[in-house]
């Protein structure tokens, strides 16, 4: 889906934080444009809100996807695969990690 921008995150509210204003919304339509450093912008957003967002509907969707498309990969000793990193992050944080991505 990420190769097809028309289908990428169709129902998402996309926030784009970038220090370069020319990059905002360049690849993915952006509802919440923020020009500035990610560190400062995220600190400000957290201090403004101070609470976790409601994610029940999203969690339900993720559960359905996990049941339909379970995480399967082969673990090879000495090889660190992205799937393993996410699995370990989930385990170490008891499922409380927040993972973000970028469009680059």
Structure write-up:
The radius of gyration is 16 Å and the shape is globular. The protein starts with 14 loop residues before the first strand and ends in a 12-residue tail after the last helix. The protein has two domains: 1-51, no CATH class; 53-104, no CATH class. The protein has three helices and two strands. A two-stranded parallel ribbon has the order 1-2. The mean pLDDT is 86. It has helices at residues 38-49, 56-68, 82-92; strands at 15-18, 32-35. The protein has 104 residues and is mostly helical. Helices cover 35% and strands 8% of the residues.
Order of secondary-structure elements = EEHHH
- Give the oligomeric state: single chain
Rounded mean pLDDT score: 86
Alpha plus pi helix count:
3
Shape: globular
Rg on CA atoms, Å: 16 Å
Estimate percent helicity: 25-40%
Pick out its properties:
8% strand, two-stranded parallel sheet, globular, single chain, 2 domains, 104 residues, mainly alpha
């Amino acid at each position: 889906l990420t190769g097809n921008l028309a289908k990428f995150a169709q129902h998402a509210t996309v926030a784009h934080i970038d220090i370069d204003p020319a990059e905002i919304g360049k690849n993915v339509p952006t509802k919440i444009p923020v020009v500035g450093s990610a560190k400062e912008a995220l600190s400000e957003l957290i201090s403004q809100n101070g609470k976790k967002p409601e994610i029940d509907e999203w969690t339900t969707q993720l559960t359905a996807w996990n049941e339909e498309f379970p995480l399967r990969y082969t673990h090879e000793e000495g090889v660190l695969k992205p799937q393993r990193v996410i699995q370990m992050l989930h385990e170490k944080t008891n499922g409380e990690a927040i993972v973000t991505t970028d469009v680059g």
